[in-house]
Amino acid sequence: MSSSPLPPVSIETENATPLALHETGGLGGHPSGLTTLFFTEMWERFSYYGMRALLMLFMVKTAAEGGLGFDTKSAAAIYGTYTMSVYLLSILGGFIADNFIGARRAVLVGGIVIATGHFTMAFGSTLTFYTGLVLIAMGTGLLKPNISTMVGSLYRPTDERRDAGFSIFYMGINIGAFLSPLVTGYLAQSEGWKTQLTAWGLNPLNSWHWGFGAAGVGMTLGLVVYVLQRGRLAHVGSAPAPEADGRRPWGKLGLVALGSLALIAAMKASDTYPVLVYVLFALQIAAILFFAFRPDQDSKRMAAILVFFFAAEIFWAIFEQTGSSISLFADKLTHNVAFGQSFPSSWWQSVNSIWVILLAPIFAYLWIALGHKQPSSPMKFALGLLFVSLSFVLMVPAAKLTADGKVGPLWLVGLFFLQTVGEMLLSPVGLSTMTKLAPQRLVGLVMGIWFLAAALGNKLAGVLAGEFKSENATELANFFWHQALIVGGCTVVLLALVPWVKKLMGGVR
Ligand code: GLN
Predict the structure, then answer these.
(1) Co-location of 257 and 294 in the same domain
(2) Is residue 16 one of the residues assigned to a domain?
(3) Is residue 297 domain-shared with residue 265, that is, in the same domain?
(4) What is the domain extent for residue 460?
(5) Ligand 1 centroid to 287 CA: how many Å?
(6) 141 with 92: CB under 8 angstroms?
(7) pTM for the whole thing?
(8) pLDDT tens-digit profile of 36-77?
(9) Are residues 189 and 322 in the same domain?
(10) Which protein residue has the closest C-alpha to ligand 1 atom 6?
(11) Do residue 472 and residue 411 come from a single domain?
(12) Are residues 358 and 248 in the same domain?
């Protein structure tokens, strides 16, 4: 792979590489590189969500069931720290790409580390388990932000197809996320597969490790696609030129690494000292104001990025309760019957992805059809917050009805529909906006900051879900109502800030 430096560019063409012209050879008239990134990320997410679907269960199952036999509390703590770290390490991954190896190589190395991590977990011991988790978190930190910036690099800054391109990319994410729990869940938990293992003379208790291995196979397939089709990406994600004296910023790398570890430690400490969460919010507001009132355009754009960051963090804090409070609502308070057939409560975890697959083409079409008349990014973000808030408003009557017993499945179908509309307005748009706002030399870092919002949101989701009460309908209704009100309030504030944020963005839509 070449590591040719980018030519000097003006603000207008800042993120465009020389070949990012109006190429249309890929999915839906998009650049052909999008197809490669679509399938690579589909398989990476297949591995991520396939493993995540087993993680909690594997930890709490007893040794006699093939699990690790952890208690729920320790398992939940490991789960929370792992999901947070996966996204938090994106900062480090973005920094490494920006300053050392470029996004293209970072995705390759990240994918190899992720696959190694999953394969490590295919072996049954506590050591291989933890080593696997660490490898996957580090590999994802390298891959996730950088594959996302490469999508952005396929388009010129003025290309109206960019948001649509991210919607398509997002669909790849969710095809992987939808399919994988079905595959890994079958291998890990089904009687059919255990019988097959016994017939082969293998230990059926190792079925979990077959599930983890399948996640590794998925990531390997992603790497095969990426390597075979690398020619389509030769013009994006190259390594930056070293400083004039040939040096690389090793010192700063050390600081970013230490900072990331400190943040992980601080977020873990917030379990004991909740005040740290407020300190974090205060720091974010201070950072927005600091950058907004500096004279240069890059700083103002950074302030805009931080406003998006704040909104995304609030969004994920509600949305990421799918695996916690909503999963409990699904399990304890919902009749899980469709078309006369009952189904396991864990299947609800795939419903968000099904909605994304159905809605992503509609949004991709909508953004293309509206062209320059589409709402601005801050307006889309405000609408995203509105929808996630409405999803919890919908749960208020559902919660009240639980006083009479379990409720029908349509409530959760509606919840996931509203949340997914919100997600389509915020998440792919956020990815796209980061690639537009970031100065070229910082694009990986800025994408890392974007995923930091997901990391903190995941953590907050855990804190909020801790208040879930399934026994008392009124308290449960209040649980949803209070969160809906807070996010509704944030929506109003963001709506009021839209003109200011647009100004901070300095011409970027
Ligand atoms: N579900 C999306 C993905 O896996 C978004 C995750 C996030 O940014 N929190 O990429």
Answers:
(1) no
(2) no
(3) no
(4) 270-509
(5) 25
(6) yes
(7) 0.86
(8) 999 999 999 999 999 988 888 899 889 999 999 988 778 877
(9) no
(10) 454
(11) yes
(12) no
- Residue located nearest, by CA, to atom 9 of ligand 1: 454
The reply to whether 221 and 282 lie within a common domain is no
Residue 470 identity: S
Instruction: Tell me, yes or no, whether 226 lies in a domain.
Output: yes
Nearest CA to ligand 1 atom 5: 427
User: Which atom from ligand 1 is nearest to the alpha carbon of 320?
Assistant: 9
- Residue 174 contacts residue 361 (beta carbons within 8 Å): no
pLDDT average, residue stretch 190-212: 95
Q: What is the DSSP string of 435-495?
A: HHHS-GGGHHHHHHHHHHHHHHHHHHHHHHHTT--SS-HHHHHHHHHHHHHHHHHHHHHHH
pLDDT at 153 over 80: yes
Q: Is residue 208 lining ligand 1, measured as CB closer than 6 Å? A: no
- C-beta separation of 409 from 367 below 8 A: no
**In 58-69, which positions are buried (b, 16+ CB within 10 angstroms) versus exposed (e)?**
bbbbeeeebbbe
| Distance from the alpha carbon of residue 160 to the mean position of ligand 1, in angstroms | 23
Decide: 170 in ligand 1 pocket, CB within 6 A: no
Ligand 1, atom 10: closest residue by C-alpha: 173
Establish if 22 belongs to a structural domain.
no
Q: Which atom of ligand 1 is nearest to the CA of 177?
A: 4
State in Å: Cα 173 to ligand 1 middle.
Answer: 8
Question: Which atom of ligand 1 is nearest to 144's Cα?
Answer: 10
User: Which 3 state secondary structure label does DSSP give 501?
Assistant: helix
Q: Is the CB of residue 316 below 6 angstroms from any atom belonging to ligand 1? A: yes
Q: Do 472 and 361 share a structural domain?
A: yes
- Residues 209 and 260 reside in one and the same domain: yes
**Residue 20 placed within a domain:** no
Residue 20: the pLDDT is 53
The total of structural domains in the chain comes to 2
Q: Which of 244, 269, 294 is the last residue of a domain?
A: 269
For CA atoms 160, 166, 168, 169, give the dihedral sign: positive
The pLDDT tens digits for 224-243 are: 999 999 999 999 998 888 77
Q: Tell whether ligand 1 has an atom less than 6 A from the beta carbon of residue 454.
A: yes
User: Does ligand 1 have an atom closer than 6 angstroms to the CB of 109?
Assistant: no
Pocket test for ligand 1, best of 173, 381, 423, 456 (most atoms within 8 A of CB): 173
The CATH number of the domain where 363 resides is what?
Answer: 1.20.1250.20
Counting atoms of ligand 1 from 1, which one is nearest the CA of 450? Answer: 8
Task: Lowest mean pLDDT of 84-98, 118-132, 153-167, 470-484, name the range.
Answer: 153-167
Q: And the tokens for 55? A: 């993680």
- Pick the last residue of a domain from 249, 269, 289: 269
pLDDT value at residue 79: 83
* Rounded alpha-carbon distances, angstroms, from residue 221 to 31, 141, 201, 436: 22, 19, 28, 30
CB neighbours of 328 closer than 8 A, spacing ≥ 6?
Answer: 465, 468, 470
Q: What percent of the chain has pLDDT over 90?
A: 64
